[in-house]
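Human:
Care to share another protein and its fold?

Assistant:
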Amino acid sequence: MKTALRFLFSVFLVVSCFNSQSQARCFPPNDFYKYDNINGPSNINEQQFNQIIDAVMAIWEPIAKSHGATLVAEKNWKDSTVNAYADQSGNRWSVAMFGGLARRPEVTPDGFALVVCHELGHHFGGYFFYGQREWAAAEGQADYFATDVCAKRVFAKFNKQNPRYRFIAPGSIKEKCDQAWKTPALQELCYRSSAGGQSLANLLAALEGAPLPNVQTPDPSQVSRSNTEHPHAQCRLDTFFNGALCTAPFDLNVIPGKGLPTGNNSKEAEAAAFKVSCSVPGGFTLGLRPGCWFRQQLFSSLN
């Protein structure tokens, strides 16, 4: 079973191949599990692995109940798979986390918390989805949700480490965070979320064999249609960073765009999402979903 998981899931954070209509694809496999050493040095030990998962899940379990679902975490510390995934079976919504990912040298505790947030993003992030009738938010949207919504709640609750990021965050991150957020507490939250995103982007770059991404060199590409698959490392860093910069309030009572008669990826779904996130029609200039994976459908102001 472990071998099957390694070869079914894609380059990094992959929603399982649930889609009977093939909108969600399995990417080429990674073999980084071969380099895992469960007894070797890492930034996260087994106790921290379990604590981080439990802390994030505790925040989202009551939210899942409000949507009629039971949230479940599968903790696979001994499994060397360098991955994570989300799944839904009826009202059982699950995330599966693996020790092989947590033990990677690029992954910090905050980066790992964002992995859990990313997987929750498949469940709660809403538009943009894998398909018109699919339950799961696409990869880029799950990244965006991780810092736009989830990390802000997690790091606000477990906030003792937040002030130290004022002294260690790069100037390029601090400049944008200070532009977006006006209070020291919110600025520090932005610094910390961005640092977690950098941790994951560094791992993605290692998996791709690409240079380390940098917030100062955003991906300039513009997709012709929104991409449901995994963007490249720089694009994903841009998404994490922009999510941290977004100041629009998110409504936890809704999964934006889900279940609309016109479809989960319709213009109506986009309008619903734009009301609870940063967008050009909403009057925002910071915190937008990056064009390297997202193609906007609406260009007029929201009502």
